[in-house]
């Protein structure tokens, strides 16, 4: 009895001490922000750009998220940005599915609350990525109430629609997530969103006023000079055979990749005559991207080459990590393609912009679970002046304008026809790809930091 009383007393003292420490640190510091990503920080480019833009304007930034992919070097080297990695909570595979999910959410909520209250100093703003918003919206709102901070939600999509792709939209979990997201989303002080279509939907169906802040490419997404292209291709050739030269140069002063050749004496780089075309697509390998569309289109393109059409061979690079990568990897390994090579690398953060700036065509298969968000990958491709073929969905026209800066398709047949049309005059300097590229170069596209200065910073200073 005595021991239990002592234990209870010690526990009370410990909790009281923690409460006093927290209360002493309760007042927000000036110009400080906590950026919360309940996901992989390295695979959250928009939130990384938010953090960098805040740091450049004198804010002290703490980023909370999962450790996985490496964030960009500029983020890691910035002295005003500190990253706190959260342990990723896995679902316990015991009991009914709804119980497994409930336990996971409770553990996430407790740990996030602990980190926000005891591992970070009080901040002026908490900037939260949604989705995932369960349980982060409620937890961040509680912390904001306790610390007199402002809650800013950046709506990238709706979490319940992503869940609906797996469970079906009538599933009780999906309906519960929708109710939670709709209720808790109204607790914020400021809302940002990625499209006008989402802004209108938030206002009409959720009674949430948001400001559209379009994704813009970071400044390092740009055309890649030929010398850097060659260096990248040689580097990738060490790990991925499609980047290696089919034949070695006869003269040892030349260094050759599948696309380029370097004269080691003059240091001059040239594109190889008859080189393959480079097609790039990036993905998180999830249910909202059906890569069978691209694979069927490539099979048809292969048949046209076999039938004697004047088309180049293709190297197709699909970058990214995700749950369905192994599934599609098995399908790709069973394809019998002689004129098309497919590889699925995971690139370093610094190499990805260089690859986009070196490619001939980008393909986007993002179909949007809600129909209200836009694919960041296309934004990055446009930053590199890379023409794009993109799968059609509801608000895609806010980014890709058919026949102006790219092409829009609805199925594999249409994509195959577009590939044939774009690559049929591949060797000609005035081909359709170069016309699109010229249009993209001439368009006055703001980079992320300029857009952030105009659209986000004024909102924060007045909230």
The CATH topology assignment of the largest domain is Rossmann fold
Structural class of the secondary structure composition? alpha/beta
Radius of gyration: 25 Å
- Biggest sheet details: 7 strands, parallel
Kindly, what is the distance between the CA atoms of the first and last residues, rounded to a whole number of angstroms?
Answer: 54 Å
Helix content class: 40-55%
Beta-strand percent range:
15-25%
Please mark out the parts with pLDDT under 50 across 5 or more consecutive residues, or reply none: none
pLDDT average, as an integer? 88
Strand order of the biggest β-sheet: 3-2-1-4-5-6-7
Question: Could you state the CATH homologous superfamily of the largest domain?
Answer: Glycogen Phosphorylase B
For the record, the CATH class of the largest domain is Alpha Beta
Report on this model:
With 463 residues, the protein is an alpha/beta fold. The chain folds into 2 domains: 30-216 and 452-461, Glycogen Phosphorylase B (Rossmann fold, 3-Layer(aba) Sandwich), CATH 3.40.50; 277-443, 3-Layer(aba) Sandwich (Rossmann fold), CATH 3.40.50.2000. 42% of the residues lie in helices and 17% in strands. The protein contains 17 helices and 16 strands. It has helices spanning 2-24, 45-56, 73-77, 97-119, 136-147, 159-167, 172-184, 196-206, 226-237, 292-306, 325-333, 351-356, 376-383, 412-423, 432-442, 448-455, 457-461, and strands spanning 32-40, 60-66, 81-86, 125-130, 150-155, 190-193, 211-212, 254-256, 260-263, 268-271, 277-282, 314-319, 340-343, 361-364, 388-391, 406-409. Strand 11, helix 10 and strand 12 (314-319) form a beta-alpha-beta unit. The longest helix has 23 residues, at 2-24. The model has no long low-confidence stretch (mean pLDDT 88).
């Amino acid at each position: 009895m005595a021991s239990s009383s002592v234990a209870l007393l010690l526990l009370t003292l410990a909790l009281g001490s923690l409460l006093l420490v927290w209360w002493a640190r309760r007042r927000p510091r000036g110009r400080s922000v906590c950026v919360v990503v309940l996901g992989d920080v390295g695979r959250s480019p928009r939130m990384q750009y938010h953090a960098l833009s805040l740091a450049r304007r004198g804010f002290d930034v703490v980023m909370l998220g999962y450790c996985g992919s490496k964030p960009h070097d500029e983020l890691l080297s910035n002295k005003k940005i500190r990253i706190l990695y959260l342990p990723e909570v896995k679902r316990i595979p015991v009991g009914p599915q709804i119980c497994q999910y409930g336990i996971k959410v409770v553990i996430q909520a407790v740990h996030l609350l602990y980190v926000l209250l005891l591992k970070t100093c009080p901040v002026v703003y908490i900037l939260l990525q949604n989705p995932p918003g369960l349980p982060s919206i409620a937890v961040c709102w509680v912390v904001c109430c306790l610390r007199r901070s402002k809650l800013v939600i950046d709506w990238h999509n709706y979490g319940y629609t992503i869940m609906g792709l797996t469970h079906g939209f009538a599933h009780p979990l999906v309906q519960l997530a929708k109710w939670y997201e709709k209720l808790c989303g109204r607790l914020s002080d400021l809302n940002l969103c990625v499209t006008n279509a989402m802004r209108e939907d938030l206002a009409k169906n959720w009674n949430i006023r948001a400001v559209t802040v379009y994704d813009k490419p970071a400044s390092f997404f740009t055309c890649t000079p030929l010398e850097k292209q060659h260096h990248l291709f040689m580097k990738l050739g060490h790990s991925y055979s499609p980047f290696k030269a089919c034949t070695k140069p006869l003269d040892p002063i030349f260094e050759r990749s599948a696309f380029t050749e370097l004269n080691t004496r003059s240091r001059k780089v040239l594109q190889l005559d008859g080189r393959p075309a480079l097609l790039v697509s990036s993905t998180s390998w999830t249910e909202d991207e059906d890569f069978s569309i691209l694979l069927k289109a490539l099979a048809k393109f292969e048949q046209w080459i076999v039938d004697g059409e004047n088309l180049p061979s293709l190297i197709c690079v699909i970058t990214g990590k995700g749950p369905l990568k192994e599934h599609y990897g098995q399908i790709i390994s069973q394809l019998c393609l002689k004129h098309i090579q497919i590889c699925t690398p995971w690139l370093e953060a610094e190499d990805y912009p260089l690859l986009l700036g070196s490619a001939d065509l980008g393909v986007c298969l993002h179909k949007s679970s809600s129909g209200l968000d836009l694919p960041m990958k296309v934004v990055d491709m446009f930053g590199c002046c890379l023409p794009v073929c993109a799968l059609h969905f509801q608000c895609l026209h806010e980014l890709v304008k058919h026949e102006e800066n790219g092409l829009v398709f609805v199925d594999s047949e249409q994509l195959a026809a577009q590939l044939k049309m774009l690559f049929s005059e591949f060797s000609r300097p005035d081909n359709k790809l170069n016309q699109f590229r010229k249009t993209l170069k001439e368009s006055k596209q703001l980079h992320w930091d300029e857009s952030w200065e105009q659209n986000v910073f004024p909102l924060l200073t007045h909230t």
